From TrEMBL:
The keyword Flavoprotein applies. PANTHER family: BINDING MONOOXYGENASE, PUTATIVE (JCVI)-RELATED, TRK SYSTEM POTASSIUM UPTAKE PROTEIN. InterPro entries: FAD-bd (IPR002938), FAD/NAD-bd_sf (IPR036188), RIFMO-like (IPR050641). Keywords: FAD, Flavoprotein. It comes from the Bacteria. Pfam families: FAD_binding_3, Rng_hyd_C. This is 2-polyprenyl-6-methoxyphenol hydroxylase.
């Protein structure tokens, strides 16, 4: 039997497929579209996702296709320098178009042995005590132990499970596309700068050889955003805001997106789970959605694998929702705030000026960028050391560096005392005795997602903590 069916071969589903394969599960990804989309939604990876790729030995592939940009300016597009002392070895945005991210994650998942079937739409889900039956549009029935809906904002899985998706509907819509223009580059830049003084949601960004990424507010909110807008609609809206359509022609692709903000009531119904946009949608402000989905997958993968491989402690799989639902709620909140700050109305523009002044304080700037980059997240592991629940940044060791030790996706005891032991859990937790430049602690236990589960030098205390995340001793 298939262990996990993943509905949706976007970044969340593909990341999850790779994570599950690290633990030897049989994984099938069903993707509705026969071919990958050329539409470029996300433009980059934030620091925490860059770390995630590094932790799994994938960063080299991403760096080869991306460009590094400063972190400043990502909160509501308010132009500021990068904050100082950000707690990461990767204090940059890795600019990389989403189709490339999707392709790299697909390559990794299939290299590790996941099966990706394109042109397969899931239309039905039923579950019983032993497993899940998934129905495809062509009538095929498939059985698996678990199913994860990574099928985007209009998730079929979420609807079939009857999971509520409360929040606000789209109030504005934006046209987005790539096209050539006949206007010269200097005139385009000057006109855009002028329009953006009063309309921050307007932009033409040069890509290559006269091709621009065009963003312009739509006239209304459409019923079905899966239907691409015609070029003429772009031209009309460009004329409305800029007085010219810049001679736009020869589009590569055209799309539209809304600003609905919604969060699934639950992430799990029995053997079915939700991740990524299927669980949460929000406007793209700050560039967080793909990152959030990839990080959902990073949190869920090892827990679901532990459940299926039979060693998951009580409640481990449910901790996926306990940990990730509040993170998504926080992202929804910060995007709502950013959308207000992007409004052209006089009140919000005054608030924007005030927030901009406050961001001149480095602490404020850093706090906001930690939110956007997800480096400030602390899961609730109960009281104790200040590192508990936080993800550990990459640090230098006596030999090599921390993230190089995490490619396998197991837990890790990093120990400079040499007196500790993970006997009984050695199949789930790697024990590395080495020195590390920081933090100033004798030893730390990291979960497979790099979050700190224990800090100290006391063996009985360690043995008490190990079962919380890694189950009973073998
Ligand atoms: C204009 C724009 C800009 C953005 N910029 C950024 C950014 O800079 N940074 C960022 O982090 N995020 C950004 N985002 C958000 C990001 O694109 C999404 O959050 C991300 O794609 C979500 O990934 P996902 O895998 O969860 O869902 P999707 O990428 O939506 O993937 C879902 C997949 O499921 C498939 N599918 C759907 N239904 C079925 C079915 N029934 N059966 C089988 N397959 C199905 C779909 O074909 C699709 O391939 C942006 C979004 C927009 C609109």
């Amino acid at each position: 039997m298939i262990d996990v069916i993943i509905a949706g071969g976007g970044p969340t589903g593909l990341m999850l497929a790779g994570e599950l394969r690290l633990h030897g599960l049989r994984v099938l990804v069903l993707e509705r579209e026969a071919e990958p989309t050329p539409v470029v939604r996300a433009l980059g990876l934030h620091a925490r996702s860059v770390e995630v790729m590094d932790q799994r030995g994938l960063l080299g592939r991403f760096l080869a296709h991306g460009r590094q940009y400063p972190l400043g300016g990502f909160f509501a597009g308010i132009s500021k320098p990068s904050p100082e002392r950000l707690d990461t070895a990767h204090p940059y945005v890795l600019g990389i178009p989403q189709p490339i991210t999707d392709r790299l994650l697909a390559e990794r998942a299939t290299e590790l042995g996941a099966e990706l079937r394109r042109g397969r739409e899931l239309v039905g889900v039923e579950q019983d005590e032993a497993g899940i039956t998934a129905e495809l549009a062509d009538g095929t029935l498939l059985r698996s132990r678990y199913l994860v809906g990574c099928d985007g904002g209009r998730s079929t899985v979420r609807k079939l499970l009857g999971v509520g998706f409360p929040g606000e509907p789209a109030r504005t819509e934006t046209l987005l596309g790539e096209m050539e223009v006949t206007e010269d580059a200097a005139t385009v830049a000057a006109t855009v700068a002028e329009v953006r003084k009063t309309q921050p949601r307007f932009g033409l960004g040069p890509l290559d050889e006269g091709v621009y990424r065009v963003v312009v507010p739509a006239a209304g909110v459409s019923e079905d955003r899966t239907v691409p807008p015609p070029l003429e609609e772009f031209k009309q809206r460009l004329r409305t805001f800029a007085g010219t359509d810049f001679g736009a022609h020869s589009p590569r692709w055209l799309s539209r997106f809304g600003d609905a903000t919604r969060l699934a009531e639950r992430y799990r119904v029995g053997r079915a789970l939700l991740a990524g946009d299927a669980a949460h949608v929000h406007p793209p402000t700050g560039g967080q959605g793909l990152n959030l989905g990839v990080q959902d997958a990073f949190n869920l993968g090892w827990k679901l694998a532990a459940e299926i491989n039979g060693w998951a402690p009580e409640g481990l799989l449910d901790s996926y929702q306990t940990e990730r639902h509040p993170v998504a709620a926080d992202v929804l909140d910060n995007t709502r705030a950013q959308m207000e700050l992007l409004s052209a109305e006089p009140g919000p523009r005054s608030v924007r000026r005030l927030v901009s002044e406050l961001m001149d304080f480095d602490e404020v700037n850093r706090y906001l960028i930690e939110k956007i980059t997800a480096t400030g997240i602390r899961y609730d592991f109960g009281g104790g050391h200040e590192l508990l629940g936080r993800r550990m940044r990459d640090v230098k060791l006596g030999r090599g560096r921390l993230y190089e030790l995490m490619h396998h996706g197991r837990g890790l005891l990093l120990d400079r005392t040499g007196r500790l032991s993970v006997a009984g859990w050695a199949d789930r937790v790697e024990h590395v005795v080495d020195d590390f430049e920081e933090p100033d602690v004798p030893a730390m236990l990291l979960r497979p997602d790099g979050h700190v589960a224990w800090v100290g030098d006391d063996q009985p205390e360690l043995v008490e903590r190990l079962p919380t995340w890694f189950g009973a001793a073998g």
